[in-house]
Structure formats: structure tokens, C-alpha cells
């Protein structure tokens, strides 16, 4: 009887699903309405829509018209499914390509030498990701990944572990030692949940777990912060009346290090640039100047800045983990305490009406059972997800070293994590057209504003991500437009607009546009080195005022575009004519590049892939890993007293992290490209599953992958930090949405 009831359960994100009886149904039952479908939405609202009158009569025009419309709908649905799977296959093919070309570029070869070994890598590199996408979509739809062992829709799904082994494990758990292990496990699970049921508890765990980093390593940095300090010092000297060189053939100022083309410099001397983001340059430079004033050294300033970033990192990760673990926007009465039913409604739902023997279940059972007293809302995370995510932040070198690394990207990554938690709250509190709007909590609104401010202050590409998120939010959730305008648009207008205004008034110097042409520079340089005879004379004439092709060829490195654009101190190859190039010369750059690429497309493709394949190939070792900043020459040689502080410990920690990352397969978890690849596959599965609102929250991660491809270097680990840090939360979101879909499928 129940199997004949047409039930449709909404798949929109819900805070807590209440399967309440209708007015005509008894307690604990679901109303059955003849010829009607019942749609269960959030906020305990059941909408009943009568479809009995919508069924066309058999025969006649109504029947044929209905059949035609149904056929058209089926055809369109199939085309849409093909399109979704095409996107998923494209993602897997991209990963397969990056995996296949790895051996070629490790040997400094070319795709022209693509052979049997590369085809083997390509096949495996496609089948494994595609199988992962298929497995995720099957599981999310409530279909056993390996099928049923007793026929379609049978009682027992096919499993990897043999039935005999499972029965033996069950007997072991039923024995006295097994019972003790079970009780101990439940106790530890309760401890895990209780220890992470408030944001301050999570922050305390991270603070204590990370405390050894700022106390023994003190700080970590590379060349960027020294350039920022140099910029501020030159600007301060100018403000205090000191005469300094500016534009001249024999002068060499901070802007010549990056370098920034002289045609961009204003006529009135200024020494502040937006190369490393002006806000951070002023902040870091000011702190280091104060440190030099009082201690005659930058070292105290480095330690202060790293310690502040350490505290900020602990706060951001704790705030976001709390939002994902504990759903704090929900009232505590949303929780269920099975020992005290009066504290909340029992929301048990039969898993399958056609198979009552499968029993009942309730969302968030694991977390509430571990909490024990209704402290957590329904849908809160269980102990396993909490443990894995906390362990990632405490143990993964990506997160550990980022807490004190003063290299812009970690600061952006932690602020992105903070904003990601608020975006998840917005996603979970979305309501349909017929439901009341749930306003964003004031503390969450303030958090999103501050997170966006820090993102904009730490990375120049942050405004692209925020604007994309703003557009997607207004399209999908326009009823809360005021919150999005205040939290997303205003920071962009104030910070990014302020930087543009300062640049146009000549107060600061903007970054050189050549910075965004990394892929093109690598293609030109590789062709100039590997096949210079293919470059047309017209292209040589157009690019001659901008670049010296011979110097480009000498400076070319497959994984890094910085040498090609003459980054570095005075002793460098001058391939980029930054002193003499003009804006009119730069206008012809794209034309020259296109002629060169057309002349040798194979080498051009080599240059592109060699510069970005490592971001999507977990077997590729990072070009620059996060342990580099811990033990760089700027720390161990060019500091006053930091280099003597636990120097052997610093060396052993950096080398130990590097050696662990070099372990095949096991070491992949220490590098960002594994998390980038898996995030891309989860996004492909979400496309197949039509989780459009979830994709709205996750699309900025795809944009970050685009930033990686256009970045100056291949497999530069700090560019992958935002994706790696939120990967655990992406998996948790996918699991929750899949659990909801599986329950809905069981009810249907």
C-alpha cells in the first residue's frame, strides 16, 4: 500500500527536516492522499498538490499532446544528462592528460614523444577519476556502488569485504573483548564530539596543537616580505625628505627588482607599488620599520607578524569548522535526545516502505548520540568527520607551515576558509519562493565582511572571486541581496576601488601587466629555445622592443616564468626590456605571441602543459613546497638572531616534511595537488547530480584552479592552499547532500 503512494521530497538544503503528520493523519504516520503528491520542505511545511485533474484523457488530442510533451521532455532530459556527463568526462580527461604528460616533462621532453608508457598513464589517469565520479554519483543516488548481491533493489548490497569476514567481525564485537572495545569507542566518540561542539573549543585545540610552530620555528618567509619592507623604507625616506634615485639608467630601485616597466611609473617619484598588494606592503613594512627602530633588526617584526597570523589562522579554521560541524545558526531545540523525548520531536523515518525490515533512521543520529544530551542540532557532524578534519589541520604540512608563513597566500587562504564557512551558512539557510526568508545572523554578516576585507588585502585576484560569488548569489538568492551587497560589494568598492584611485592619482605604482601573461611568456621562451627558426620575422620585429628573444631562451625554465620576465636583483638576465618598453609596444605583444604560437603549436602546447600539469597530477612533486619558507636562505642566512633559534630543529622539520611528501601515494596527502584533483572530481559529480546551489558555493574553487594555471610557476604549493584547506568541508557537504538524497529516494 505504502509503495503506491507518490511521495516527492524536496532536495533543497534543509536545517532540520521534520517529517510531521498532517492534520488528517495520526501521530507518527504520513498522510496518504489519493491522487496527490506530498512535498516535504524545510520548516516543517508539507505542501499537497493535487495532480488528479492534470492527467490527460486517453486518446483524443489531449492524450496525443500529452504524450508528445512527455516525449519531448524525456529527450531534453537525456540531452541534459549527456551534457552533464560530458563535463564530468572532460574533467577526467584533463586529469588524465596532466598525469600522462608527467613523465615527459620530468625528462624535459615533449608531447611529440608521447608513447606507450604515456598512453598507459593516460588510461589509468582517466579510469580512476572517472570510476570515482561514477561511484560518487551512484552512492549519492542511493545505489550501491558495486550493485546488489541479491538482484536489483535487493536487501543486501555487494561489498568489498566478504560476508564471512563481516560475520566474524560481528561475532568479535559481540564477545566480551569486543564489547569493551565498542564501549571504549563510543566513549572516545563522545569525547571527540563534546570537545568540538563550540568554536572556542576547536580554536583551543588548534592553538595548543599548533603552538610548537611559532615557539620553535618563530617565522617563515621568502623574498616577498623583504621586498615589501624595502618598498616601505624607500617610501618612508621620501616622506622624510631624503633624496633618492628614481628613473635612470644606472639607478636600481625596488620596482626594478620585480620588475615594473618604467612607462607605468608616475612622473612624480613614488616608491610604493601594488606588486604585493599595497595594504599588506604598508602593514608589513610599518611593523618591520618599528622593529628596526627599537631593535635594529627586522626579526622581532617577523615574529610579531607570524604570531598574529598564527592566531588569525586558528580563529578562521575554528569558526568555519564550528559552522560545518555544529550548524550554530540552528536553535538547540532542533536537537534530539533519545533519552528525553520531551526535548525534541522524534524524527524517525522508515528507510524503505517496501522493505520495513531495513528499519528506521534519523538525520544526524551519530553526532546526537555522541552528544548524549541534545546539545547539538539535528544534522550536526559525527565524530569521524570532526576527527579527520581536525587532524588534517593539525598534522598536514600545508596547514602547519602556513600558520607562520608570511607569503600573502596563506593569509588569503585562511580568510577564504573563514568566508567559506559563512557561505555554507547562507547555503543552508536558503529558502524557496514560498517560504519566509531567513536573515543572515549579524555575527555572520560581520564575519563575511571582515573575511572579504582580508582576502582583498592579501591577494589581488581576490576581487575576481568575490565578484563572481556576488553575481552567483544575486542570481540564486536575490531575496537576501542586501546582505550580499554589504558583505561582498562594498569591500570590493572600498578596497579595490581605493587601490585603483590611488594608482590613477600617482600615489602608488600598479603591478606590471606582464605579470598576467605568464603562459604566453613561457610559450614564446620555449619556442625561442627549442625551435628559434620557426619564429617569423614580423613577430621578431614586433616583440623586439619588449623582449630580447635570445635572453628569453637562455632564461627559460619549464616550471617558472619569473626568470623570463627578468625578476630578481641586479645580477639577472635582462630579457624583459622594462626600462625602455612603452605602452604602444605592449599593444603589439599579443599579435607577436599569436604569430609565434601559430608557427610552432606543439612547442606552445608543451610550454602550457609544463607550466601547469603539476597542479592536477598528484605524482608530481611541488616546485616550491611550504617547507621551503621554513628553511629558506632568507630565514637561515639573512636574519639577525632567528637563524640561531632551534636551527637544527628547523632543518630537521623542513627535511622531514619534504621526505614524507616524497613517499609514493602516502606522501600525496602532504601536497596540495591531491586536494585540487579530488575537489575537481567532486565538482564533476555535483554537476552530474544537478546540485546547482551547492555548485554556487563551490564555483570559486574552480576559479582558483584557473588562477593556478595562469600563475607564474607550476605546482607552486601556496597557490593551492585555499582549495586544500576547504577540501574536508567540501567532502562533508557532499556527504550531507548525498545522505539527504538517499533518504528522499528511500521514501519515494
Automatic annotation (TrEMBL):
Domain of life: Bacteria
Any Pfam family matching the protein: DUF6020
Ranges that cross the membrane: 85-107, 119-140, 204-225, 300-325, 383-404, 410-427, 448-475, 481-502, 695-713, 719-735
Keyword entries, A-Z: Membrane, Transmembrane, Transmembrane helix
Name of this protein: Sugar ABC transporter periplasmic protein
Amino acid at each position: 500500500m505504502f509503495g503506491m503512494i507518490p511521495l516527492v521530497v524536496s532536495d533543497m538544503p534543509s536545517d532540520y527536516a521534520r517529517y510531521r503528520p498532517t492534520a488528517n493523519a495520526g501521530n507518527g504516520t504520513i498522510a496518504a492522499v489519493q491522487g496527490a503528491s506530498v512535498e516535504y520542505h524545510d520548516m516543517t511545511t508539507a505542501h499537497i498538490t493535487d495532480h488528479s485533474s492534470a492527467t490527460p484523457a486517453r486518446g483524443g488530442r489531449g492524450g496525443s499532446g500529452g504524450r508528445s510533451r512527455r516525449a519531448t521532455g524525456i529527450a531534453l532530459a537525456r540531452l541534459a544528462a549527456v551534457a552533464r556527463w560530458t563535463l564530468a568526462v572532460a574533467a577526467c580527461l584533463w586529469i588524465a592528460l596532466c598525469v600522462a604528460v608527467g613523465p615527459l616533462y620530468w625528462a624535459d621532453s615533449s608531447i611529440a614523444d608521447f608513447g606507450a608508457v604515456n598512453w598507459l598513464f593516460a588510461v589509468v589517469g582517466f579510469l580512476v577519476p572517472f570510476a570515482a565520479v561514477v561511484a560518487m554519483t551512484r552512492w549519492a543516488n542511493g545505489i550501491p556502488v558495486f550493485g546488489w548481491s541479491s538482484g536489483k533493489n535487493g536487501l543486501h548490497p555487494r561489498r568489498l569485504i566478504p560476508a564471512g569476514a563481516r560475520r566474524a567481525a560481528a561475532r568479535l564485537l559481540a564477545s566480551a573483548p569486543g564489547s569493551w572495545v565498542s564501549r571504549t569507542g563510543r566513549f572516545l566518540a563522545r569525547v571527540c564530539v563534546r570537545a568540538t561542539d563550540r568554536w572556542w573549543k576547536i580554536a583551543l585545540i588548534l592553538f595548543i596543537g599548533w603552538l610548537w610552530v611559532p615557539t620553535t620555528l618563530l617565522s617563515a618567509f621568502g623574498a616577498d616580505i623583504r621586498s615589501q619592507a624595502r618598498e616601505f623604507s624607500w617610501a618612508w625616506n621620501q616622506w622624510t625628505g631624503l633624496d633618492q634615485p628614481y628613473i635612470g639608467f644606472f639607478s636600481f630601485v625596488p620596482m626594478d627588482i620585480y620588475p615594473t616597466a618604467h612607462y607605468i611609473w608616475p612622473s612624480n617619484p613614488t616608491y610604493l607599488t601594488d606588486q604585493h598588494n599595497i595594504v599588506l606592503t604598508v602593514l608589513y613594512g610599518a611593523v618591520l620599520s618599528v622593529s628596526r627602530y627599537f631593535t635594529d633588526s627586522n626579526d622581532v617584526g617577523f615574529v610579531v607578524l607570524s604570531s598574529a597570523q598564527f592566531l588569525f589562522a586558528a580563529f578562521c579554521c575554528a569558526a568555519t569548522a564550528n559552522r560545518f560541524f555544529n550548524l550554530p545558526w540552528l536553535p538547540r531545540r532542533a536537537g534530539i535526545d533519545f533519552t528525553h523525548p520531551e526535548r525534541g520531536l522524534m524524527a524517525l523515518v522508515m528507510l524503505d516502505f517496501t522493505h520495513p525490515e531495513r528499519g528506521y533512521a534519523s538525520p544526524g543520529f551519530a553526532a546526537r548520540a555522541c552528544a548524549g544530551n541534545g546539545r547539538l542540532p539535528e544534522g550536526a557532524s559525527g565524530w569521524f568527520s570532526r576527527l579527520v578534519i581536525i587532524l588534517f589541520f593539525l598534522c598536514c604540512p600545508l596547514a602547519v607551515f602556513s600558520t607562520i608563513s608570511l607569503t600573502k597566500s596563506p593569509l588569503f587562504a585562511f580568510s577564504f576558509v573563514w568566508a567559506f564557512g559563512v557561505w555554507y551558512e547562507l547555503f543552508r539557510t536558503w529558502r524557496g519562493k514560498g517560504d519566509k526568508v531567513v536573515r543572515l545572523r549579524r555575527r555572520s554578516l560581520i564575519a563575511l565582511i571582515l573575511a572579504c576585507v582580508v582576502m582583498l588585502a592579501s591577494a589581488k585576484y581576490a576581487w575576481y572571486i568575490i565578484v563572481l560569488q556576488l553575481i552567483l548569489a544575486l542570481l540564486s538568492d536575490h531575496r537576501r541581496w542586501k546582505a550580499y551587497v554589504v558583505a561582498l560589494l562594498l569591500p570590493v568598492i572600498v578596497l579595490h576601488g581605493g587601490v585603483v584611485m590611488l594608482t590613477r592619482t600617482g600615489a602608488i605604482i600598479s603591478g606590471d601587466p606582464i605579470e598576467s601573461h605568464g603562459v604566453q611568456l613561457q610559450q614564446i621562451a620555449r619556442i625561442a629555445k627549442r625551435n628559434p627558426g620557426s619564429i617569423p620575422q614580423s613577430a621578431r620585429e614586433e616583440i623586439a622592443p619588449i623582449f630580447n628573444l635570445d635572453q628569453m631562451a637562455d632564461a627559460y625554465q619549464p616550471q617558472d616564468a619569473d626568470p623570463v620576465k627578468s625578476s630578481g636583483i641586479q645580477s639577472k638576465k635582462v630579457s624583459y626590456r622594462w626600462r625602455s618598453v612603452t605602452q604602444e609596444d605592449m599593444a603589439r605583444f599579443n599579435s607577436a605571441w599569436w604569430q609565434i604560437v601559430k608557427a610552432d603549436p606543439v612547442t606552445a602546447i608543451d610550454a602550457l602543459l609544463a607550466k601547469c600539469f603539476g597542479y592536477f597530477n598528484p605524482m608530481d612533486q611541488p616546485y616550491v613546497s611550504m617547507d621551503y619558507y621554513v628553511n629558506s636562505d632568507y630565514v637561515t642566512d639573512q636574519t639577525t638572531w632567528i637563524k640561531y633559534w632551534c636551527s637544527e630543529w628547523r632543518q630537521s622539520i623542513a627535511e622531514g616534511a619534504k621526505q614524507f611528501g616524497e613517499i609514493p601515494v602516502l606522501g600525496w596527502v602532504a601536497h596540495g595537488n591531491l586536494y585540487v584533483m579530488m575537489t575537481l572530481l567532486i565538482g564533476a559529480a555535483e554537476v552530474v547530480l544537478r546540485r546547482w546551489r551547492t555548485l554556487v558555493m563551490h564555483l570559486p574553487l574552480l576559479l582558483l584552479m584557473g588562477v593556478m594555471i595562469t600563475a607564474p610557476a607550476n605546482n607552486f604549493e601556496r597557490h593551492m592552499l585555499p582549495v586544500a584547506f576547504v577540501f574536508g568541508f567540501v567532502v562533508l557537504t557532499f556527504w550531507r547532500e548525498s545522505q539527504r538524497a538517499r533518504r528522499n529516494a528511500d521514501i519515494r
